[in-house]
Amino acid sequence: MFAYAKTPAFASDPFFTRSVSAKVLGTLRNPEYQAKMAADPHFSHYPEFLETAEKNFKRQADAGVPYGFGTDAGPPGRFPGYAEHWEMELMVHAGLTPSQVITAATKNASEYLKAADLGTVEKSKWADLIVLDKNPLIDIKNTRTIHSVYIAGNKVR
């Protein structure tokens, strides 16, 4: 939540702003709201906590500890649809490759859910997928360049 002690950069990102209300954007830009976030007595420690978490995550991934993907969507400050892309970005920032992150968000996540029919593109599997305009293996932010969306093999966007 320490990201909200000032106007977060994503509050101007069209990928984010097209999916939230003007009220949410107003809250994110509100100095009173920002002051409330910064007033947390542990606020000054949160950036170092994140840095430690990133280092520990990378160390565990390198050691072979299984990992998946999920943003704990629901609590304040988590924006479904955007938070997943931010989480992927944070995972790359922690030292994982874009390929590792995409695998965590697809194959690994479906394995954790024990959903064998999901997570990879294979014959006989459920075909929910996105087609991107740019390669996310070059830059994980390219997951935001969504060209089309397929659900159960049917194009919906």
Characterise the protein shown here.
- The chain has 6 helices and 3 strands, in the order ααααααβββ.
- A 3-stranded antiparallel β-sheet has the order 1-2-3, with no helix packed on it.
- The model has no long low-confidence stretch (mean pLDDT 91).
Write the layout of secondary structure elements.
Blueprint: H1 14-17, H2 22-29, H3 31-38, H4 46-62, H5 83-93, H6 98-112, E1 129-132, E2 146-151, E3 154-155
Antiparallel strand pairs: 1-2, 2-3
Short note summarizing the structure:
The protein has 157 residues and is mainly α.
Give the tally of β-strands. 3
Question: What's the pLDDT, averaged over the residues?
Answer: 91
Strand content: 5-15%
Order of helices and strands: HHHHHHEEE
Number of alpha- plus pi-helical segments: 6
- Please tell me how large the radius of gyration is: 17 Å
Poorly predicted segments: none
User: What's the shape?
Assistant: globular
Structural class: mainly alpha
The largest β sheet comes out as: 3 strands, antiparallel
| End-to-end Cα distance | 32 Å
Count of discrete domains: 2
Biggest β-sheet: strands ordered side by side in the sheet: 1-2-3
Helix content: 40-55%
